[in-house]
Amino acid sequence: MRPHAVHALIAVKRLDQAKSRLADRLPAPHRARLVLAMLADTVTAATAVPQIHSVTVVTPDAAVTDLVGALGAHAHPEPAAPTADGLSTGDGLTTADGLNAALVHAAAGLRAEHHGADLLVLQADLPALRPAELADMLSTAPPHGRAVVADHTGSGTAALLVRDGGELAPAFGVDSARRHVAGGAVELTGDWPGLRLDVDTVADLELVTELGAGSSTRAVLRDIGWSCRVHEPVRRVC
Question: Which fold has domain 6-231?
Answer without folding.
Answer: Spore Coat Polysaccharide Biosynthesis Protein SpsA; Chain A (3.90.550)
